[in-house]
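Case study.
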Amino acid sequence: MGIDSQDITDTLPLHHEEQVPAITADALPIEIQTVLLSVNGTHYTLSLDTRVTLLDALRDYLGLLGTKKGCDHGQCGACTVMLNGERINSCLTLAVAHEGDSITTIEGLSRNEKLHPIQSAFIARDAFQCGSCTSGQIVSALSLLCEGHTGSDAEIREWMSGNLCRCGAYANIAAVIHDMVKGEGNATV
Amino acid sequence: MQPFSYLRAADVETAVHTIATHSAAQFLAGGTNLLDLMKLGVEKPDYLIDISRLPLTGVEEYPEYIRVGALMRNSNLASHALIQENYPVLTEAILAGASPQLRNMATVGGNLMQRTRCSYFTDTAAPCNKRSPGSGCSAIGGHNRNHAILGTSKQCIATHPSDMAVALAALDAMLLIDGPHGKRSVSLMDFYLIPGETPEKETALESGELIVGIELPKTTFAAKSLYLKIRDRASYSFALVSVAAVLEVEDGRIQTARIALGGVATKPWRAYEAEALLQGAVPTSELFATAAAAATNTAVPQTQNGFKVVLTQRAIIRALSTLGERA
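After joint prediction, the assembly is written out as follows.
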């Protein structure tokens, strides 16, 4: 959907063209609601258009650009974050629905400027090329380790299937998870 | 996406009352399908009633059945000990669907209410009788490799996408519904409608009604079950064909058989004729082949999905053979 009027975009707390409604005589009013989110241990109070997804709230309102928007339809896993300790697709959930929820993004994994062991393992194993899917892969892999779906290579691959990698780094991503299972690193958030 | 009002419902009563007073309102649970369809412009609610925090999340055991709250997450249901032990077909079906992330979001009720993934249904530029009644079916004569061969009509050939519902069909699940006219229950097989002349009407749910739970009958046979899913890639893909099967053998004869099909029908499908052939018979590979043929004898293949007839038969034979070897 194209945008013709700069004035319209200037009045909206939105950065994404597809979320700007068509301007018609019977257009519904935009509803703004306030929501308290806990992201990586910090509390934020945001006033958001009800249509803003959790993914867009993280990226466009909190400036946490580590979480990526791939397909925006729950098919690629690039937007994976942890919600109250469980991995979800942040593109398919509304920010206003998460009052009081605790969200962990890729930015929340490091401690005191030190990478989380799984982040170091991704580097050590060269488990990415373009990096577009990597944040989602790391958050998903860490969740998988916490869930314990690591009994075999097949099980790891099945439980990582919600994260697509167009560069095809799957073998090295699986190797990272095997490394973590073997004890090279601590699989906690 | 058009703007909408958002309300977090405090209880079922408020949710049901609120939806009854807003004609374009919809319930929001996990949101994995609804929000996607809103982005695509297929769904245009002006009011979302968020029911995701209602206390409908437990698994409770009763003498005759196990009751599951409609807002239980798919992942929690699949991993629940009572389900894994008594209804393995249900755990397997849920884990065969979507991705871990989506299963952590999606609810039981939302899974049941999800819409078809027919590419014409989700493309607002294409004619589709389900999305826009009377506009025509683009899939008939179009790209229909993934479409249904059972329960179709000249108005619609879209498949029902759920894996979980196929398992529930095999288990004779009942759906518990609350609404403006009180509580009622309906069997899953009666809940889903074939498209006929009204493909836009998919379920027996009436205006303002909400699925609040499901009941799984306790049986001797439900534990002797499995879910077999055939798809284009190894994981994270909708079924080309799936089979939820139950086979209970006693004294060398089939005591109970259930065959439900996914990926090939316009609703979760029960192969009743095939089940009748199996009932009381001695399990042999010839019998399984005969039953599998019976399961597809009303199939109406389209231009690109004729392969599903044979694939369905083979999947049924494999599912029954696997269960037969365990018996």
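Observations recorded in class. The first helix of chain B runs from residue 12 to 20. Chain B touches chain A through 29 residues (CB under 8 Å). We will return to this complex in the next lecture.
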